[in-house]
Amino acid sequence: MMAQMAIELRNVSKQRRNKTIGPLNLTLPQGYITALVGHNGSGKSTLMNMLMQLVNPDDGEIYWFEQKYKQGLPLKVRQAIAYVPENSLAEEAYWNVEEAASFRKHWYPEWDAEYLEGLLEKFEVPRNVKLGKMSKGERRKFEIAAALAARPQLLLLDEPSSGLDPFAWKVMLETLLRYMDETGATILISTHIVEEVRRLADYIVLMHKGELLGMAEKDSLFGSWSEVWVNAADEEELAELAAELPGVLQLTLEAPGAASFLTQQVQGVEEHIHHLGLKVIKSRSLELDEILHLWTHGHRPILVDYEKGD
Amino acid sequence: MYEEAELQGGTPAYRSGRRGEDVWIPVQINENSAEPLYHQIETQLRSLIISGVITEGTLLPSIREFAGELKCSVITVRRVYQDLENEGLLRTRQGTGTFVSNVGDAAMAEYKHEAVRKALEGAVDVGKSVQCGQEELTRIFLEIVENKYREQQ
């Protein structure tokens, strides 16, 4: 199944009990890791479930590897997708690792038992323990390893790191990167952990209250917002500064003599400040989590367009 | 796995094991710089190659691997590799990876001069910013050159 797009959503919407998800328009290019971020209840899990056809959209169309399947995903497509849901399946709770693995093996023709063995060892997943008796983290590690053992072309991970200790978390990151390096598969991972996005993602998709706020190449967000400190004696000077610098955010007097604000045009603003005869005390680039926070509050970053050169 | 022929005529910095595992590329990203990420990586990688820190024939990390190390996207690394390939500093073989090409003595010499000029220009700017006169600056420069090269002998 060679396709440019692993997933495409066109005007997809879903009515949930107390909210509407969508309309969602999104494409996930094949061969990349896309991080799905957003607050709890923003619709991330519903989106994942729709990609597994566990939930069907009320409206719009979903394409898997550039094909749509209204009558249900054919086996061949299902076998190319692995999913680690937010909550593990109750059906497997009475099985131990070997039993669950041998069941899943029947579903996936590409199943790699040797690879699974290696991952279980690396993750230190306990054997001969029923999956339902495992700690949350142990179960999670099994689920991630088993999803990868299916050698999927599309891997859906719904908050995979919740419950993992820092050691297992690191193993997970390395394992996912290596898998991508070897296979060129596609990963959609929902997460609340900024460091995970920093280390894994190529693209970031931001959801908020059931809507997609946008998709950005991760590195284009880098340096999009800056915090600048400038000398300002008092409230009066602060007001003058506000008049001179329209478009800056959160202009505040930090301490007598120093004001700070946020801006997306750090170079232009710094030049302007010099012209006013003021001094930039210091500046810093905002972190990814701060950029995403501003974005969810309506301050969409101006993305660096690499195509147009610098 | 690469083929033996790939490494002919160059010094293989990489001999065994998984691809790229033996090569560590010392690129340092400054997160507070206004310089775009790909530009920072490209500039540093170019200097490492031209200055001979990474030698001809070296197999670079795969795009995904390097992106993981630098915590940037594969899109950025792919762009850097492509730019440097267009400049003739790298070459990519399908299924084997991206290697450092022959840089050439002329390019190396030019790079050396460029690097020294840039550093000296920076030093002169510092001198000017503290109102240091032309003669005084020249005197200090010659003094430093004298001292440094005497140390060496």
UniProtKB/TrEMBL annotation, chain A:
Its source organism is Paenibacillus albidus
Provide this UniProt record's keywords sorted from A to Z: ATP-binding, Nucleotide-binding, Transport
Can you provide one Gene Ontology molecular function annotated for this UniProt record?
ATP hydrolysis activity
Annotated InterPro entries? AAA+_ATPase, ABC_transporter-like_ATP-bd, ABC_transporter-like_CS, ABC_Transporter_VariousFunc, P-loop_NTPase
Q: Which residues form the ABC transporter domain?
A: 7-234
State the PANTHER family in the record.
ABC TRANSPORTER ATP-BINDING COMPONENT, ABC TRANSPORTER ATP-BINDING PROTEIN ALBC-RELATED
State the source organism's domain of life.
Answer: Bacteria
Q: Per its UniProt record, what SUPFAM superfamilies does this chain match? A: P-loop containing nucleoside triphosphate hydrolases
What protein name is recorded for this chain?
ABC transporter
Per the record's keyword annotation, is Transport included, yes or no? Answer: yes
UniProtKB/TrEMBL annotation, chain B:
Recorded GO molecular functions are:
DNA binding; DNA-binding transcription factor activity
**Domain HTH gntR-type span(s) in chain numbering:** 35-103
SUPFAM superfamilies tied to this protein: Winged helix' DNA-binding domain
Which domain of life does the protein's organism represent? Bacteria
Q: Which UniProt keywords apply?
A: DNA-binding, Transcription, Transcription regulation
Q: Which Pfam families match?
A: GntR
Q: What's the name of the protein?
A: HTH gntR-type domain-containing protein
Q: Which organism is it from?
A: Paenibacillus albidus
Query: Lineage of this protein's species?
Result: Bacteria, Bacillati, Bacillota, Bacilli, Bacillales
